[in-house]
Amino acid sequence: MIEVTGLTKTYQLGLVKVAALRGVSVRIEKGEFIGIMGPSGSGKSTLLHQLGLLDTPSTGQILINGTDVSRLDDEERTRFRLMHLGYVFQDYALVTELTVKENVALPAITQGKPVEDAYAAAAKVLENVGLNRRLDHLVHELSGGEQQRVSIARALVNKPEIVFADEPCANLDTENSRTVLELFRSVNRDLGQTVVMVSHEPWHTEYFDRIIAIRDGLLDEKRMGREGHDN
Ligand SMILES: Nc1ncnc2c1ncn2[C@@H]1O[C@H](COP(=O)(O)OP(=O)(O)OP(=O)(O)O)[C@@H](O)[C@H]1O
Ligand SMILES: [Mg+2]
User: What fold, for 2-219?
Assistant: First the structure.
């Protein structure tokens, strides 16, 4: 479970201050598939980065499974990310010099698994995303949709409790977007993993259990909780 209280984030751009988050309090239950939605510049990525411990808020508190993550030092944060969280980005963020299998094994190796075990775990999760025939390919030999599935496999290899995704379908066509959304839905349903995904595509809401809507750095109460797939 994620509990956020009074979260603010202000960026300093030279003399100008940009208040990207202006006091967000929200709760995400274990096993929810959440869509963070809102207009461009509303603070979606900023919120995701604070929740995913990729950035530190200006003020406010974030509890993840009861741990006050704002109190962790750098080393503890890194460890927390590695043990509990997974990430998928719009641009895939894969290592181009490595093969598909090596990319996916990386978080498992970093976690301290023996290399052979990490490769076995990578092969298994790649099979789940339908890429078992691409293990030894280099990343650039794959299509965009396939690369995003590799990055999802990488996010899942350590079986994180929470998967964060920032517009993972932004560079994909509708068919590949559906494949990605269905993968998230199946890990969410089958493994009970919490998925928190930023999107600005209205049709994605049919996959979400609940929407966290933001506008100008605040929760957009009118749109909050509107359930996509039940309406
Ligand atoms: N590193 C940064 N330095 C300064 N300002 C930033 C930084 N990151 C974001 N901002 C500003 O904070 C506000 C929120 O940005 P954010 O990236 O969270 O929006 P977003 O909702 O993800 O938008 P988009 O849909 O375009 O991705 C914007 O005004 C943006 O310009
Ligand atoms: Mg963004």
Answer: Rossmann fold (3.40.50)
For residue 198, which atom of ligand 1 is closest to its CA?
22
Which candidate, 30, 32, 40, places its Cα nearest to that of 207?
32
Q: How far is the CA of 42 from the centre of ligand 2 (A)?
A: 8
Q: Tell the residue nearest (CA) to atom 8 of ligand 1.
A: 46
Q: Which of 145, 144, 98, 93 is nearest to 122 (CA)?
A: 98
Pocket test for ligand 1, best of 45, 196, 223 (most atoms within 8 A of CB): 45
CA atoms of 92 and 43, how far apart (whole Å): 21
Q: Is the CB of 52 under 6 A from ligand 1?
A: no
Sole residue written with tokens 């900023």: 46
**Ligand 1 contacts CB of residue 40 (under 6 A):** yes
CA distances to 161, 226, 230 from 209, rounded to whole Å, are 17, 9, 8
**Cα of 188 vs its chain's centroid, Å:** 12
Q: Would you kindly state where each structural domain of the chain is located, as residue ranges?
A: 2-219
Q: What is the distance in A from the centroid of ligand 1 to the CA of 202?
A: 20
pLDDT tens, N- to C-terminus, the chain (231 residues): 999 999 999 999 899 999 999 999 999 999 999 999 999 999 999 999 999 999 999 999 999 999 999 899 999 999 999 999 999 999 999 999 999 999 999 999 999 999 999 999 999 999 999 999 999 999 999 999 999 999 999 999 999 999 999 999 999 999 999 999 999 999 999 889 999 999 999 999 999 999 999 999 999 988 887 665 544
Q: Is the CB of 200 under 6 A from ligand 1?
A: yes
